[in-house]
Design a protein that fits this description.
This protein is mainly α. The chain has five helices and four strands. The strands form two sheets. It has a two-stranded antiparallel sheet. A two-stranded antiparallel sheet has the order 3-4. Helix 1 packs across helix 2 and helix 1 packs across helix 3. The longest helix is centred in the last third of the chain and has 30 residues.
Length: 147
């Protein structure tokens, strides 16, 4: 469940909105804000940025500032990692994602993660079939069920 921060809350489309009138929201999230929103360490936020999962702009003082989609991108990235995707694969999924994603954009990402998960399940079942086939373990690489 996504947490809201004081002065910010999630809307139905999963975007983080500002509840303080007059305060600029664009690029307003610090590393600490994103870390708190996603239950990851600040170093993980920097890691995700380094690998292209999220992007930041720099202030005049060279501090990172993230837009409101950063927390959502990390939540989805953590889920995709549990499915088995690498951070590089996740960054590739996000490559064509607009800076202010709409629900349809997130649906496209979900569909891609679902397809990848289904393929991995199929591959794992094939490996289980190979293991259950009675073939000598050292011959499994030559087993016809291996993808």
């Amino acid at each position: 469940m996504l947490k809201s921060m004081p002065g910010r809350e999630y809307s139905d489309d999963m975007s983080l909105t500002n509840t303080h009138p007059g305060e600029e929201m664009k690029n307003a999230l610090t590393v600490g804000d994103v870390a708190a929103e996603t239950d990851v360490a600040p170093s993980a936020v920097r890691f995700y940025e380094k690998h292209g999962v999220i992007t930041a702009e720099r202030t005049a003082g060279n501090q990172r500032r993230f837009d409101e989609s950063a927390a959502c991108r990390i939540h989805i990235a953590k889920f995709a990692q549990r499915v088995g995707l690498t951070v590089r694969e996740i960054a590739e999924l996000y490559a064509d994602l607009p800076s202010d994603p709409e629900p349809a954009d997130w649906r496209r990402i979900a569909d891609l993660i679902i397809a990848e998960a289904q393929q991995r399940v199929t591959d794992l079942k094939s490996q289980l079939d190979a293991l259950s086939s009675g073939v000598k373990m050292c011959d499994l690489n030559r087993h016809p069920l291996r993808p």
